Amino acid sequence: MIIGVPKEIKNNENRVALTPAGVAEFKKNGHLVYVQKGAGENSGLSDEEYTAAGAEIVPTIEAVYDIAEMIIKVKEPIASEYPLIKKDQLLFTYFHFASCEPLTHAMIEQKAVCLAYETVEKSDRSLPLLVPMSEVAGRMAIQEGAKYLEKPMKGKGILLGGVPGVPPAKVLVLGGGIVGTQAAKMAAGFGARVVIMDVSLPRLRHLADIMPANVTTVMSNHYNIREAIAEADLIVGAVLIPGAKAPHLITRDMLKLMHPGTVVVDVAVDQGGCIETCTPTTHENPTFIIDDIVHYCVANMPGAVPYTSTLALTNATLPYALQLANKGWKKACAENEELKKGLNVANGKVVYEGVAQAWGLPFENVDSVLQN
Question: SS3 for 125?
Answer without folding.
Answer: coil
